[in-house]
Amino acid sequence: MNELFEIYKRIEYLRNNGVKMKEIADHTQMAASVLSSLYSSVLPTFIGEVKKGIAEEEALDYALSQVNNVSKKRLLGNLEDMKERLFELEPPQGGEKRKSPFWDMMARESQVSAQEAYNYSGIYISYSLSSAADALKVEPYLITASENNEYVRVVHMSAYNTTHSGVGLFNNHTSSYILFNERESPELALFTIYLQLPMYDFPKMLKGLYLCLDYNRNPIARRILFVKHSDSTDMDDFLALKGEIIPKEQIPDDLLPYYNYTCQPGDFIKTCTVPSPSLDTQDLEREKKMLEL
């Protein structure tokens, strides 16, 4: 049954190089639904079972039991012909390689989000726990549609008054994802924020979590609050604001609720690098103890 491995690899190669499933089905004289079941279910399951040490015959029977439109007799009887036809088919010359479906989805969601930006556009002040001390970190954000209205532009001003430009995705009153690169290209250090969106228009406050790297480049996750400052999307208005870190003892009364929500034990998850030649369960225990210090 070595042909099954070769057939799967060939279909994968053709798909990744721009050949559509219907074109492959037509060339191999198979129903598109049958070919789709083979590629997406039967063959991956068969290969996975064989890698576990299951006999090929038993692995194939199990894989076929997961679908109801592929005949074992017909499949095995047509293996040589299917393989020959697949290797006759070549990707279009000079054509672009098939993009990742995930990136295609992200591009679509980005454009859809731009149409929703009006509901969340404006200047916000964010509140979260500082990485450096038990203090409240205050940072402005600007959310607006891009000039060409193709994506949601988000600008972040750090507590040290450096700015980062990123993108936002807004999913129909459910959730929002904001992404930045905290470093200068070509270095990549993603700063990602997940915000819960309320079921009403023009919210004055958004809450969520964000993940970034601390000063030692260890991942850290924290609560974050976005409080609406103004409806302005003017960059000059945004740049007039400043970020800051407010020590606990200097936090004014009106900001204490934000500190109490974002800066308590359990409102963050930290990690650290354990000096060890190999990571094992004992090192995981050591890390937890180090973080308690």
From TrEMBL:
This is Uncharacterized protein. It comes from Paraprevotella clara YIT 11840.
